[in-house]
Amino acid sequence: MPPEADDELCIPAMKAGLSFIRLTAPTTNDHRLGAVLANTSGFVYYVSIAGVTGTRAPDLKAVAHNVARIKARTPLPVAVGFGVRTPEQARAIANVADGVVVGSALVDEISQSLDENQRATDLTTRAVLGLVERLSAGMRASA
């Protein structure tokens, strides 16, 4: 929900003890960023690319710049997602952000391991765990 609709969901959610996570993107200017951060709680989710998740790689220099810009405006942790597929990308983002979000790459691993009826197979768990292990090892590796 946009900040202009805070009274409808954000404020009641926070009063009920729920964090209200907001998204910010490469296209979010400084004026809009202030409005987005005003009632955000929990953490800020930075969408690292403009467009559809998983369709291209994030510009790591732009991610670092924008995460720093967000962190200068809020004490909340910043998690970065969209387009993160490789251990190298995860490591680079982990070096500047508080969290790395991987979604589409996991969905792809799952879909490639399904049987002809689109059901999980013995390979599904191994495929997902393998990707998570590679990503986490990449994040722990020295830069």
Polypeptide structure, described:
By secondary structure, the protein is an alpha/beta fold. It has a domain at 3-100: Aldolase class I (TIM Barrel, Alpha-Beta Barrel), CATH 3.20.20. It has helices at 10-15, 30-37, 60-71, 87-94, 104-112, 122-140; strands at 22-24, 44-47, 78-81, 99-100. It has a 4-stranded parallel sheet, with helices on one face. Helix 2 (30-37) links the parallel strand 1 and strand 2. Helix 4 crosses helix 6 (122-140). The longest helix is centred in the C-terminal third of the chain and has 19 residues, at 122-140. The chain starts with 9 loop residues before the first helix and ends with a helix.
What would you report as the Rg, rounded to the nearest angstrom? Answer: 17 Å
CATH superfamily of one domain: Aldolase class I
- The tally of beta strands, per DSSP, is 4
Rounded average pLDDT: 91
| Tally of separate helices | 6
Q: Which bin fits the share of residues in helices?
A: 40-55%
The biggest sheet, with number of strands, parallel, antiparallel or mixed sense and barrel status, is:
4 strands, parallel
Order of helices and strands, N to C?
Answer: HEHEHEHEHH
CATH class of one domain: Alpha Beta
The largest sheet has its strands arranged as 1-2-3-4
**What structural class do the secondary elements suggest?**
alpha/beta
CATH T-level topology of one domain: TIM Barrel
Overall, the morphology is globular
The separation of the N and C termini measures: 37 Å
Taken as a percent bin, the fraction of beta residues is 5-15%
User: Which residues form runs of ≥5 with pLDDT under 50?
Assistant: none
Q: Any idea what the CATH architecture of one domain is? A: Alpha-Beta Barrel
